[in-house]
Design a protein that fits this description.
The protein contains 4 helices and no strands. By secondary structure, the protein is mainly α.
Length: about 130
């Protein structure tokens, strides 16, 4: 039922923002950003519930619990970059949005290199 609330909030926010777009476009942008932040706060509540369940799973993954931390950081980076890029696109700054997306992708790639190194070391240890 939460998805219905979020969907209606988003549609209503966009409809109101469209009313301001012709006369006061800055208000339209501010309203869009505010709606995004409200929806993002609902997402954080869901993320908290997910983290609690993952915490229970970590008991079974004691040796590889560090990998879950990397996974959540990567997901966090992608959410923040997508959020910021969307705001920039709405403001008409597509080039800035593209650069934010590229930076996010490179950040996730760089963050994953230690995991790749650890996997290769484990393969070499087993094979050698």
């Amino acid at each position: 039922m939460e998805i219905m609330k979020i969907g209606l909030l988003g549609v209503a926010g966009v409809m109101i923002a469209l009313q301001f777009k012709a006369g006061r476009p800055e208000y339209s942008l501010y309203l869009g950003a505010a709606i995004c932040l409200i929806i993002f706060s609902f997402s954080l509540e869901g993320l908290h519930a997910l983290l609690m369940r993952i915490g229970a799973l970590e008991k079974y993954l004691s040796s590889s619990g560090g990998y879950l931390g990397f996974l959540f950081k990567a997901v966090g980076i992608t959410y923040v970059c997508e959020f910021c890029a969307s705001i920039c696109k709405d403001a008409g700054y597509g080039a800035v949005a593209g650069q934010i997306e590229i930076f996010g992708k490179l950040s996730v790639l760089l963050m994953g290199l230690p995991i790749l190194t650890a996997v290769i070391e484990n393969i070499n240890a087993i094979a050698g």
